[in-house]
Amino acid sequence: MSDKTILVWFRNDLRIHDNEILLEAVRKADKVLPVYCFDPYYFQLTETGAHKTGNFRARFLLEAVADLRKNLQGFGAELIIRIGTPAEVIPQLAEEYHVSEVYHHREVAYEETNISEQVEAALWKMRLNLKHFIGHTMYHKEDLPFPIKDIPDSFAVFKKKVERDSSVRPVVPTPDHISVPEIADAGELPTLQQLGLTDPIDDPRATDYFQGGETAALVQLHKSLSIVDGFTKQKGRNASDCSTKLSPWISIGCISPRQVYWEIQKYGNNGNLLKLELLWRDYFRFMFKKHGQKFISARNQAAELAADQDVLFDKWKLGETGVPLIDAAMHELNATGYISNQNRQVVADYLVNTLKGDWTKGAAYFEEKLIDYSPASNWGNWAFIAGVNDAKESKYTIATKLPKELEAKTDFVNTWQPSSIDEAGDLVEA
């Protein structure tokens, strides 16, 4: 009797710890075939000529996939890497390795779900099943105190009922060993150039460097929570004074929200603000699950758009508005791929409510630039600020008030642009 082989399709779950699809595949199959596919769809140019995925985020992703391969090898396995459309790559590999079933984590945003549906349809023609798992939230969908269709649109009501009537599941065990079939061609990790991108230039003003991968995520988890705990124990300080900066790793699943939650539990009430942020991530994902695209397109932008919005948008994205905090935040975003959560709300509010710009252009720009881009959180946050969904309140009422004392607290106030390069490849002043 031939061995049963299950293909594990990695997407935004680039980890071995607390990974249910990997554990279940190990338990149910004789052989596991781990696969990651670099889909050209995510590296195309948009209608505006911008990259759908910028080079900072792409570099982070490449590092994460490389780390996943290395960690799988430590468990006796190997990661197959391919460049191509998943609806073509996954069935081809399934046929080549006589796969019995394909596992993957379910997504909620329409682009990701469309890709899943294409893969599912292709596998169905082969009489193979694409099994869906849920692994991107702190609270499991099946543990919510209401069905998806009845989830409260108000975050306050959602929070109250979930915290009262639900509990967070424990993390799943890590496999002891992962057996794989004999792999003739595991594939090479692509370069940024092969993905149509250039190497990003690390700005000397940046205070953080984000290294992709589960290994770095676990280091950052313990480091950041210790820092938060130290801050909250200081008189007059609270957790809002610092950030764990875990979002880049959470966004592509190098670490799970559940892992973070259970680590937070060790710090008692000092971790309450962090748990609240995890709950907001859950909320946005569940809202997309409930409403689909309607969550961000219930109606057009509440405010009337400015006649010269294209010019204003260009000034906003380049950090040339003349408002020091806005410009500094945009300089930092462009130079590093990351800005604080508060500054995201500040610059988004400024584009939407002061410049009267199109919020969808802002959301798309964040999609390109942010290392920690996550569809539900990004588009959900922007929709909140633009007032285009049916939620009853926003958490950003205070955050969007421009604090003058922050305007001179960053090196990015000046206009030096690290993306400006002379013909010799050296950095030059803009």
From TrEMBL:
Task: List this protein's GO terms for biological process.
Answer: photoreactive repair
Could you list this entry's UniProt keywords, alphabetically sorted.
Chromophore, FAD, Flavoprotein
Q: Which cofactors must be present for this protein to function?
A: (6R)-5,10-methylene-5,6,7,8-tetrahydrofolate; FAD
The record's SUPFAM superfamilies line, in alphabetical order, gives: Cryptochrome/photolyase FAD-binding domain, Cryptochrome/photolyase, N-terminal domain
Presence of keyword Flavoprotein: yes
| Domain Photolyase/cryptochrome alpha/beta: residue ranges | 4-138
Write one Gene Ontology MF term.
Answer: FAD binding
State where FAD binds: 243-247, 277-284
Q: Which InterPro entries match?
A: Cry_DASH, Crypto/Photolyase_FAD-like_sf, Crypto/Photolyase_N_sf, Cryptochr/Photolyase_FAD-bd, Cryptochrome/DNA_photolyase_1, DNA_photolyase_N, Rossmann-like_a/b/a_fold
Q: How is the cofactor bound?
A: Binds 1 5,10-methenyltetrahydrofolate (MTHF) per subunit. Binds 1 FAD per subunit.
Q: What does this protein do?
A: May have a photoreceptor function.
Which family, according to UniProt?
Answer: Belongs to the DNA photolyase class-1 family.
The name this protein carries in UniProt is: Cryptochrome DASH
